[in-house]
Amino acid sequence: MGMSKSQGCFGYPLSIFFIVANEFCERFSYYGMRGILILYFTNFLSWDDNLSTAIYHTFVALCYLTPILGALIADSWLGKFKTIVSLSIVYTIGQAVISVSSMNDLTDHNHDGTPDSLPVHVALSMIGLALIALGTGGIKPCVSAFGGDQFEESQEKQRNRFFSIFYLAINAGSLLSTIITPMLRVQQCGIHSKQACYPLAFGVPAALMAVSLIVFVIGSGMYKKFQPQGNIMSKVAKCIHFAIKNRFRHRSKAFPKREHWLDWAKEKYDERLISQIKMVMRVMFLYIPLPMFWALFDQQGSRWTLQAATMSGKIGALEIQPDQMQTVNAILIVIMVPIFDAVLYPLIAKCGFSFTSLKKMTVGMFLASLAFVAAAIVQVEIDKTLPVFPKGNEIQIKVLNIGNNTMNISLPGEMVTLDPLSQTNAYMTFDVNKLTSINISSPGSPVTAVTDNFEQGQRHTLLVWAPNHYRVVMDGLNQKPKKGENGIRFVNTFNELITITMSGKIYANVSSNNASNYQFFSSGIKGFTISSTEIPPQCQPSFSTFYLEFGSAYTYTVQRKNDGCPEVKEFEDISANTVNMALQIPQYFLLTCGEVVFSVTGLEFSYSQAPSNMKSVLQAGWLLTVAVGNIIVLIVAGVGQISKQWAEYILFAALLLVVCIIFAIMTRFYTYINPAEIEAQFDEDEKKKSLEKSNPYFMSGANSQTQM
């Protein structure tokens, strides 16, 4: 094997810094691309939410399944170094392809700003994503194992520290990219028509990937490179198959039992391979419960972000959007990894407690379970403040008087009197089958019955005006507005059509005594203008809302003042979120501490317990647990429609707790090994054997045994 003397720096091989820099760039590139992918699908390729989410999750799962492929190529064919280089090239090409696929000028021959043939863009972006999944997944298990390879046997402490630094680089890369890439997307660019700059947002990650590749190749002379040792996976598979077959053949009582089922392969395979497979099997067995941790961990992006959308983002002077809460995890990692490494672990060691890798992982699972209990407590607090929406065959009605007279409305079991421009305080809930009669009247006019097919499970607004006119409007909003935005709709009391423009969105031609649909706006003060043929030219056309917070909905009525000019009045439909997003910090803190003790340790444990020719394979096995965790979430989300969100959190916490206890019991039976020592022992024995072969005086007694 080609070994060059490694230069040192702070007691670390110099080559390590190239590997960490490479990982930082690669993760920046990956998370930057992944962060805007969903928006690219929905806005540029105009797919609906469900298709976008499905393709997105498939892509993420693929990125965690392809490591198996990368590990096979590295451990049996190209070696880790060449695998990283060649797959990085594939990866860079993939990033470039998706960047090109997002240029509308590519097929936009009539220069109207939209691509003329979307299929070209879809095809290109799918090819790009496939290459990226192959690249990112393929190099994942190799980079961490290749880093571990750079250390001498005696440098175990530095090597463990390396896995922490490596994990830090991953999170620093993802943190920076989640902040920077969205800024690039909102830039305007294009040759013939200006629009959101996806080519730039995809192009910067592509350029960084190229940089990461160059950085990695520059360090080439310093690396310790091990030659791959033949197709190890097929050997392993054949050996296991032979052992099972052989064991089955000798199942009668006549044959003596063997210590381990793999020992039944002794007839055909050498002991070294058998002992290596035993090491891998023992670790893989421990991995079985681990996907449950990732199933909880991966809900930060989905469930917890949706939870944040029902909360208020005003934290002191800061305003935080719900999808920015995820950066809390990356920020905390960057803070917590050094604290655990430099302060907490040494303290625990000083107290004389042996905090082994597997104990750390058990604690990590327990902390993640606690995080979900915290999330459930926050959810219960939120549920107290959420408005009640109609369920099943219930409907809800509120009445809004938009006329100039007092109106009387009789509903089943209720009598309401409304002054001009006022509404009932809340939505009233009725069973759609028991909704007998609704009547309206104004003083001195006959009673009119309201007839309408109310749609079950929906909210409705009954607009009334004198003497006995009415209109039933279906709100179309039977949940809190998504992403913490605010719903706004307008009711026109003029006789002619009016059009309202608000912060770039248009409510076109709202007819007389009717309500527009809701449109949604982020927090802040929004200006709007009202235009109509009926409004005199000297009127002031522009208005502004009061300060919109998070998750509210309002109806603005537009009515005529005495001078013919419009004025507006707002009515609350859904109150703003009141529970503060800062309350999510404890659950993020617990989950991040769990991640630090679980994930960093898992990487390092997988490396230290693997035989030298299967380091990448075990890293891939570790990443496979992440893929399975992702799949668990998709299944649970699809199957278990638990109506109460807090109950789902508790269910997940309980599941992980059970798994944590099982794992703790399993770890009691695991004994730590040093693969290098075991392999050295085999080398020793082989030397002796070859000595015996060359020295015939040893042969007399041995011959009879080798013939067996």
TrEMBL record:
One of its GO terms (molecular function) is peptide:proton symporter activity. GO terms for cellular component: apical plasma membrane. Interacts (via extracellular domain region) with trypsin. Coiled coil: none annotated. The gene is SLC15A1. It is a multi-pass membrane protein. Keywords: Cell membrane, Glycoprotein, Membrane, Peptide transport, Protein transport, Symport, Transmembrane, Transmembrane helix, Transport. GO terms for biological process: protein transport. Electrogenic proton-coupled amino-acid transporter that transports oligopeptides of 2 to 4 amino acids with a preference for dipeptides. Transports neutral and monovalently charged peptides with a proton to peptide stoichiometry of 1:1 or 2:1. Primarily responsible for the absorption of dietary di- and tripeptides from the small intestinal lumen. Mediates transepithelial transport of muramyl and N-formylated bacterial dipeptides contributing to recognition of pathogenic bacteria by the mucosal immune system. SUPFAM superfamilies: MFS general substrate transporter. PROSITE patterns: PTR2_1 (PS01022), PTR2_2 (PS01023). It catalyses: glycyl-L-leucine(out) + H(+)(out) = glycyl-L-leucine(in) + H(+)(in); L-phenylalanyl-L-phenylalanine(out) + H(+)(out) = L-phenylalanyl-L-phenylalanine(in) + H(+)(in); L-leucyl-L-proline(out) + H(+)(out) = L-leucyl-L-proline(in) + H(+)(in); carnosine(out) + H(+)(out) = carnosine(in) + H(+)(in). This is Solute carrier family 15 member 1. Its main location: membrane. Pfam families: PTR2.
